Amino acid sequence: MNIIDIISKKRDGYKLNEKEINFFIQNYTNGSIKDYQAAALIMAIYINGLDEEETTIFTLEMAKSGEMINLSDIGDIIVDKHSTGGIGDKITIVLMPIIASLGIPVMKMSGRGLGFTGGTADKLESIPGYNTDLSLEECINNVKKHGISLITMTGNIAPADKKIYALRDVIGCVGSLPLMASSIMSKKIAAGANKIVLEVTVGSGAYMKTQKEAEKLATIMNKIGKISNKETVCVLTNMDEPTGFSIGNTLEIKEAIECLKGNIPEDIKEIIMELGAYMIKLSGKGDNLEDNRNLILENVHNGKAFSKFVELVKAQGGDIGYINGEKEFKQAKYVIPVVSDEFGYVKALNGENIGNISVKLGAGRLQKEDKIDNAVGIVLNKKIADKVEVQDVLAYVHSNNEELGKECANELKMAYEFSKEKVLKKPSILGVIKEI
Ligand code: URA
Known about the structure:
The protein is of the alpha/beta class. It is built from 16 helices and 13 strands. The longest helix has 17 residues, at 211-227. The protein binds uracil.
């Protein structure tokens, strides 16, 4: 068997068998297959796809390419959560302390931002002192002691996905259904949880631009979950505009803190209630989704979720002075208002453009090695369906470079589209896929 034959087979639209997929995954992970050959195969997969059987094999091979974590020490039922990515996505940071405050153990590994979407690990690291790089053992100890640990990808989890994802990112092959499904599910399978709630984002700020594509992705992931004996629920959420109002690492942490204190923007509230309700259900702590949604809000309003977040930050070395308001997060030097010269209702707010603008400001990375600036980003003042008058502030750009900030403010203005007619806001929850 050789890689050229495998590339040619997929290039010509044929199905790969288990041996060929296994050969590729093993030999790319150990460095025997070079990046240029892997890139050719990934591009052929992007164009010609993988069927369900190939996708499942691809996923399981990637999961097996590294360590398979055993979380039975923490509990019999461990529920994990993952999102296909979005702009301003601070859902993990808000939701996981709520879930932990309900007595459900939370052990979650999150990635760093790359491209137009941010990463939860970067956001958490904008809390001075917070260490996302715990060893697996330290992480499990923290879950046993505090009921929660949020870390970055640790150990040797699905190293094949790490390499293939980084490669896809630089060859324009992220947005492929089988590649996304196998990337997400391989990590979830290796990470040891036995129940999985997935947020599948749809819209201008997501990789899946249409509901139909998102439903297909969700269905594939559900099937892989079933085959791997991991009950999986996919919640489709609207990502036509950023989640909440803030985009950028410190800005998002500040918004997450406000949410945990009970000041929750409507879209974030809908998403945490739905994902949370299914997490509670899958954990076996409540079958009635409506009751579960109420439990989520109850533990925000009674302060238990915020206390759990403070406990988490402290346990991971973070300075809780920043969380309880004794200390101020470092702000960007310039806060530049984006002023509207139109009136009407906001009709569209291109999420991907906004993500790219925040990367340009320094909040994200174009290359893995890029340094990020925690303080910079965007705070929206107007979102879809809001009424806008001429001279109203649409958003604020937070920048450490005045010229760049002004340039980004102009670009941000262009990301808004207006209508003279009233605009109806889409709900944040577009559907749930749980049965196959
Ligand atoms: N998130 C992942 O983990 N993998 C993808 O391919 C896309 C989003």
